[in-house]
Design a protein that fits this description.
The chain has 10 helices and 10 strands. By secondary structure, the protein is of the alpha/beta class. Helix 8 links the parallel strand 7 and strand 8. It is globular, with a radius of gyration of 19 Å. Bound molecules: adenosine-5'-triphosphate and magnesium ion.
C-alpha cells in the first residue's frame, strides 16, 4: 500500500531529515513509528499527504507514485489525525466530523452547513463507533475533553473512507489512561475499515501494545524494523540514548507485494 524507495529529504538549510529510507507497508497494517525528537518521523509522514516531497527517491501509494501531478488526487485517500486535534473549537461536533467529507461536497453547500443526508448519517454512525453519544453531536467541540476531541478527530478522519491514515503523535496531548483508550479505538477503527495506518508515538510500551509492526528512525535513518516482540528494552535504550544507528532487522522491500491494491478513482 505504501512504498518508500531510497528516500532522502534535505531542507534548504542543509538539514538531512531523511536519509535513504526504503520501506513497504502492506494494506491494513498498523505500523508504529518511533524515534527521538528530530529523528524525521513527521517529515516521513508528511511525504504521504503532499506536505513534503523527497529530494531524492520516490514514494508510492497503492502502486502510484506521489508526484506534483498525482498528489491532489492521491491525498484524498489519506486522512490525518493530529496531536492537537486540529478541530474547529467553536463549531459543533457534527460539523467538525462532516468537515472530513469536504472534498465530496460543493463549497457553497458546506459553507451553509448543507450536507447531504447520507453524509449526516455516516457522521452519526462514525460518532457512535468512536463512543460519542447523541448528546455530544450538537455540542461545540470546545466543550469536550481532550480525549473526546480526539475521538471527534478520529471520526472525521474516517469520513472519506481513507486508504491510509496518518497519525502524528495522536496521544501526545493526553494522559496515559486516555492515550491507551484512543489507541485502542484507532486500532479497532482501522481494522474494521481495513485502513493502513502509520502512527508516530513517543511511548515504546504503547507501540508494543498496538503496533502490528514497529519502525524506528534516528537522525533520518531507518534503524529498526520489527515486531513488537523484537522491540526489546535494549533496542529502546539504544534508540533513545544514541547507540542505535544501524538497521537491526529490516526485511527487504518485497516488490511483488507492492502491486496496486486499490482502485484510486477520484472521490
Ligand atoms: N522546514 C524545515 N526546515 C528545516 N529543517 C526542518 C524543517 N522541518 C523539519 N526540519 C528538521 O528536520 C529534522 C526532522 O524533523 P521532524 O519534525 O521530522 O522530526 P520528528 O521526528 O517528527 O521530531 P518530534 O518527535 O520532535 O516531532 C529535524 O532536525 C528538524 O529540525
Ligand atoms: Mg514530529
Amino acid at each position: 500500500m505504501l512504498k518508500f524507495d531510497s528516500v532522502y529529504k534535505r531542507f534548504p538549510d542543509g538539514t538531512e531529515a531523511l536519509r535513504n529510507i526504503s520501506l513497504h507497508v502492506p494494506k491494513g497494517q498498523f505500523c508504529v513509528l518511533l524515534g527521538p525528537s528530530g529523528a524525521g518521523k513527521s517529515t516521513l509522514l508528511r511525504m504521504l499527504n503532499g506536505l513534503s516531497s523527497p529530494t531524492e527517491g520516490s514514494v508510492h501509494l497503492a502502486g502510484e507514485q506521489i508526484t506534483e501531478r498525482s498528489v491532489q488526487r492521491l491525498r484524498k485517500r489519506v486522512a490525518t489525525v493530529h496531536q492537537q486535534f486540529n478541530l474547529t473549537p467553536r463549531m459543533s461536533v457534527a460539523l467538525n466530523v462532516l468537515s472530513g467529507a469536504l472534498p465530496q461536497v460543493a463549497h457553497w453547500r458546506a459553507a451553509i452547513g448543507l450536507f447531504p443526508p447520507e453524509l449526516r448519517q455516516k457522521a452519526c454512525r462514525l460518532l457512535d463507533e468512536v463512543g460519542l453519544t447523541p448528546e455530544h453531536v450538537n455540542r461545540r467541540v470546545s466543550e469536550l475533553s481532550g480525549g473526546q476531541q480526539q475521538r471527534v478527530g478520529i471520526a472525521r478522519a474516517f469520513m472519506m473512507d481513507p486508504a491510509v491514515l496518518l497519525a502524528d503523535e495522536p496521544v501526545a496531548s493526553l494522559d496515559p489512561r486516555i492515550s491507551r483508550g484512543i489507541l485502542e479505538l484507532l486500532h479497532r477503527q482501522s481494522r474494521n475499515h481495513d485502513t493502513t495506518v502509520l502512527c508516530s508515538l513517543h511511548q515504546p510500551e504503547l507501540a508494543r501494545e498496538f503496533g502490528d509492526r514497529i519502525i524506528a528512525v534516528n537522525q533520518g535513518r531507518l534503524v529498526f524494523d520489527g515486531t513488537p516482540e523484537q522491540l526489546t528494552d535494549q533496542v529502546c535504550e539504544d534508540l533513545y540514548h544514541g547507540a542505535l544507528a544501524h538497521k537491526h532487522d529490516a526485511p527487504e522491500v518485497d516488490e511483488a507485494a507492492c502491486e496496486p491494491e486499490l482502485e484510486l478513482a477520484a472521490a
